[in-house]
Amino acid sequence: MSTTASEALFARAKQVSPGGVNSPVRAFRAVGGTPRFMASGSGAWLTDADGNRFVDLVGSWGPMLLGHAHPEVVEAVTAAVARGTSFGTPAEPEVLLAEEIVGRTPVERVRMVSSGTEATMSAIRLARGFTGRDRVVKFSGCYHGHVDALLAEAGSGVVTLGIPGTPGVPAHVTADTIVLPYNDPAAVDAAFEQYGDQIACVITEAAAGNMGVVPPQPGFNAHLSRVCAEHGALFITDEVMTGFRAARSGFWEIDGATEGWQPDLMTFGKVMGGGFPAAAFGGRAEIMDLLAPVGPVYQAGTLSGNPVATTAGLTTLRLATPEVYERLAATSGQVQKLVTDALAEAGVPHVLQSAGTMFSVFWGVSTPVIDFAGAQAQDTAAYTAFFHAMLDAGVYLPPSAYEAWFLSAAHDPEVDSEPLSRLAEALPAAARA
Ligand code: PMP
After folding, report:
1. 3-state SS, residue 348
2. 0.80 exceeded by the pTM?
3. CATH class belonging to 71-319
4. ipTM of predicted complex
5. Which of 210, 222, 317, 390 has the greatest count of CB atoms below 10 A from its CB?
6. Would residue 182 show up in a list of annotated catalytic residues for this protein?
7. Residue limits of CATH 3.90.1150.10 in the chain
């Protein structure tokens, strides 16, 4: 497989951008080799600058629920662009997208922003403003974007690159961040016993997906919701990754909706932007109305609610019907079976975990992973060997063992089976690593 064009672009990129990328995990640091510079995408497939084609199991890290360049999304976006790309005024598409989000989830009001990072950053500011308290509880291995206060023991690229803390984040900024082990209700109780009247909020991924997929143990999120309510703290579920992906509304639909609890605030991103920079945070009206211009908590954005981005998100969500989620669940199940059968056949110890339609594989472990320590016990060398064998076979997996695998409604294991069938062939490489 020729990589000449990607290599040339990477060399040029490194001259003008740190590490040659605009987001660290894309640089293939953890897995080595040349990152593929993608030139186009269509449905389940990506084509790189050398003309190589890959079945895409990253989906832009989650947004591409319908696959790349879905004709109806492209048409709607093209029409929106022709009407003008940004007005700096309110416009109809953002109202329609907000209505769609409010219709699907338990939030009553949403404020749109441009990235998941902004969504969690703003949600925490609002929680602090609402409660008049400073402390924030987060869980190790959960990633909420590169918000200063939340870059403590974070997952995603922070763990992939083995970065212990982040220079540039002053100690006093994380001094109010309490980091607890995931899925450990006793640790939560102990923290609230000590700091209960100082905690503004608990933020958690609705189902952790940034240390590999680690779903909450049954009752864990309900416990967080209850403890927060008892102590006057807000419960924030970060659904940037899981929202409109794990299920139609998000992971809450599988968890809170059935167990009978609601988060105070939620954050969204990825799918709701349809591949454009759009994200949001939302919650109960009495909390959200503390935001400017109604209330005193300031938050703003030049491109927030951008008409092109919100059109892409709205069109994506409207096309994401219950049938789409059924199909996604079926496809996800098929691919999960392909992987587990092949791994079992090759005698590679592994644990496959899922949260709704999302899943990931932990290599070299044999018991369920419930927290960050368990996730870090995996054999990343085996994943690296597997990753490269699959890349050579035409399957684009996340270039890190700590990430979820994302499918789209455009994936069809029948049609894409030629590269996917190489899963079995790629496994001996992993077994040898
Ligand atoms: N929260 C979660 C759960 C995420 O997975 C991510 C991104 N992977 C973020 C927040 C940050 O989103 P963004 O990269 O758009 O800033």
Report:
1. coil
2. yes
3. alpha beta
4. 0.99
5. 210
6. no
7. 4-65+321-432
